[in-house]
Design a protein that fits this description.
It is built from twelve helices and three strands, in the order ααααααααβββαααα. The chain is mostly helical. The chain has two domains: 137 residues, no CATH class; 142 residues, no CATH class. The chain has a three-stranded antiparallel β-sheet. α3 packs antiparallel against α5 and α10 packs antiparallel against α11. The longest helix is centred in the N-terminal third of the chain and has 36 residues. The two termini are 45 Å apart.
Length: 297
């Protein structure tokens, strides 16, 4: 004898049929990517360069959660002509990344896989609803070593040159040989960590999230903010290196090393975020623009 009222059966049947594709999609995604997350949690996410990975994952879960009801309530108009090729491309990337242990490719494959899932279950409108979380997946992708090596070298050269020029103009006894700064009796190597590449990546993730949450209605405001992210990160990193050089010169090598390993990253991010928020407030004042809403939820 059934303890469920017949009317309840009638209501649950279409509900279960409606949500069945989502259960299958989420289950399939878990089977594919939970091992990827597990490997990352015990590997690259424990490094300084990719330690932001779990934070990005938490932000993504929150973003998709806030959009979940709107996605589910979107009328179902599947787009298989676009969805299946996109899903096949994502699956090929995933298989290639797993076969050759390429974390960058594995993580990037999430973007076409999730976009295709939305297209196949709900259609283009659902993808438009979730466009930001889908694109934000790019910040989970570890930067390939070849790209890091290609960008880090020039960045270190530029930073070394600018720091030498500024401090020499300020009257400090400083000289430079390549990426080695000589100030007084001390020599400081502008290492890969001082290039600012990963701080640029982190600030881009924070900056785009801030822009999305504030939802400024001025396209000019948004364009200026977006274009400013990398220059602000670069300037903030110059400030960090200058502070490191000055701490070493005035307080000694031990103090400089303590600053480098203790507070350098915090100083960099505080300076960068301070400049970024100040620019947003200035643009809001100059352009007489506010948010469409107080903040996205």
């Amino acid at each position: 004898m059934s303890l469920v009222h017949p009317d309840m059966h009638a209501r649950l049947a279409p509900l279960s049929r409606e949500h069945l594709p989502w259960f299958i999609a989420i289950g399939g995604f878990a089977v594919m990517y939970l091992p990827v997350y597990w490997i990352a949690a015990n590997g690259i996410w424990q490094t300084d360069d990719n330690g932001h990975g779990p934070i990005i994952l938490a932000v993504l879960l929150y973003l998709f959660w806030t959009k979940w009801r709107e996605i589910v309530e979107t009328p179902a108009r599947p787009a298989p002509l676009l969805g299946w090729p996109l899903f096949a491309a994502g699956l090929l990337l995933y298989v290639f990344g797993r076969a050759f242990s390429m974390a960058s490719v594995e993580f990037f494959s999430q973007l076409p896989v999730i976009a295709a899932t939305l297209l196949l279950i709900k259609g283009r409108r659902a993808l438009r609803v979730a466009w930001f979380p889908v694109l934000y997946l790019i910040f989970m992708v570890p930067l390939p070593n070849s790209l890091v090596d290609a960008i880090t070298g020039p960045l270190k050269q530029w930073i070394s040159d600018i720091v030498e020029t500024l401090l020499y103009a300020a009257g400090y006894p400083i000289a430079r040989t390549g990426v080695i700064l000589q100030i007084g009796q001390y020599q400081l190597l502008v290492a890969d960590a001082c290039s600012g590449l990963h701080s640029m990546f982190s600030l881009t993730a924070l900056g785009t999230l801030f822009m999305y949450m504030m939802d400024r209605k001025s396209r000019l405001h948004n364009a200026i903010m977006l274009a400013s992210i990398l220059p602000i990160a670069f300037v903030a990193n110059i400030v960090r290196v200058i502070i490191l050089v000055l701490v070493t010169y005035h307080l000694g090598d031990e103090a400089g090393q303590g600053f480098l390993h203790g507070t350098a990253g915090v100083v960099l991010m505080l300076v960068a975020l301070g400049i970024f928020f100040a620019l947003d407030s200035l643009l809001k004042l100059v352009l007489h623009e506010g948010p469409r809403h107080a903040a996205r939820t």
